[in-house]
């Protein structure tokens, strides 16, 4: 079964400095029909204006991924990390027993466009950590690039969940993806126009795939694939 969560049906909140779209319930947006998908709890598409950002705030027991689409964001946290995440780089922050952090757009005139993704861990009370890596999607066009997995294979982030997260850019090509029994898949379209098992989707759309054995993805665009047990 394939269900499309259309981009224009997501929760939308305009804060002035932040224009944000919520795939699942988050903050002031509550929709009992869209609370989460398996262990995938949050996909927020954020546009952060220049010289603004998220002030220091706390999180616990969540695997948090920041995926830059355009622009850059400056990260600071209570572990002492300070870094700038740019297009092509992805951030993983394990909140664990507790972490305080801020995310700030350091540009004076360029907005940053990003996805913030939360995965519910299968173990609570882990030590918090911060990681940042380049995954070279542009150099691997037409391929699924593993960015997170339970065991850190292929230099991916290690996350505390039985899930694999891939990202890909395709250009008039096709990707076939077999789905293991009892696994479910969510695809978030970052940009472009894709066809997934015959269903047309566009930028911002999410696709829930349940009880399917194989995926065929065609078109031109960028997407993130979540394989969840």
Categorize the overall geometry: globular
Order of helices and strands: EEEEEEEEEEEEEEEEEEE
Q: Can you summarize the main beta sheet? A: 8 strands, mixed
Count of DSSP E strands?
A: 19
CATH superfamily of the largest domain: Jelly Rolls
Looking at the overall shape, the CATH architecture of the largest domain is Sandwich
Q: Give average pLDDT, whole number.
A: 97
Query: Which bin fits the share of residues in helices?
Result: under 10%
CATH class of the largest domain: Mainly Beta
Report the C-alpha radius of gyration, rounded. Answer: 17 Å
Report the sheet-strand fraction.
over 45%
Structural class: mainly beta
Q: Low-confidence spans: pLDDT under 50, at least 5 residues?
A: none
**Cα distance, first to last residue?**
16 Å
Helix count, DSSP H or I runs of 4 or more residues: 0
The fold-level CATH name of the largest domain is Jelly Rolls
Query: How many domains is the backbone divided into?
Result: 2
What do you see in this structure?
There is one protein chain. The protein is globular. The chain is built from no helices and 19 strands. It has 229 residues and is mostly beta strands. A hairpin with a 2-residue loop joins β16 and β17. The chain has two domains: 11-134, Jelly Rolls (Sandwich), CATH 2.60.120.10; 138-228, Sandwich (Jelly Rolls). It has strands at residues 2-5, 11-14, 18-22, 40-48, 53-59, 63-70, 72-77, 82-86, 89-94, 99-104, 112-119, 129-134, 145-149, 157-158, 163-178, 184-196, 199-202, 206-209, 214-228. Helices cover 0% and strands 58% of the residues.
